[in-house]
Amino acid sequence: MRLLDRLDQELGDGAGLVAILDYDGTLTPLVASPGAATLAPSVRGTLARLAGCERARLAILSGRGLADLRARVALEDVVYGGCHGLEIAGRDLHFRHPRAHRSCLTATRRALAAALPSIPGARLEWKGLAVSLHYRRVSPRRRLDVRKVAERILRRGGLTLVPGHAVFDFVPRVGWNKGRAARWIASQMKSTLPARRAVVLYAGDDTTDESAFVALRGRAVTICVGTKPTAAEYRVRGVREIHALLRRMASTMAS
Ligand SMILES: [Mg+2]
User: Which residue, 13, 39, 81, 161, is the most exposed by fewest CB within 10 angstroms?
Assistant: First the structure.
């Protein structure tokens, strides 16, 4: 069944909605620098309408740090999941993975900072429960060096490497990912909905979102943004289609 028809049908009879959305590449177009990925006011407006619906709950789950993500979206009544879901907050939810500590990252952060001068263009970002090595501005012929440095530092142990768009995120190895986080968010948020039945929707564009597509199989409407191979049930071309989908759901849920 086509995606829009399915959502119209499932949401039309008073069901609740839990929408879990990735940020970069899903709500904002991918841009040359992560700092420039700002949310369009029209998209923010639609998200606010959806979050304000009595029978809808909205979560935004990202590899970004929690404070950064929250500042970019800047909406109340939204649940935010930062560092691939290691930290979740909003709408009275407070979660931090019990085995993820900032101290797990100290040695790696220091080793990365020491290696940085050897990779021109690379940049470090401290996200609290993750440390990220950005290499978008590293020349293509030096990118193999970036991977080698990342892998060498990773061998110190305790952390796992999550590759993203021109970034390596070092996160505590605690068996957590966007899939586990999305399942947790969905169950928490469903219990706060007045409706007996709730549709869970997950949309994302990155490799890290694949863990959520798999974890939510048969439990959610999963949507991949872009053209890469995916475990998601549906596929859309880009941010514009996601926005159209959110607008449609906001209208359905408000009526
Ligand atoms: Mg993304």
Answer: 13
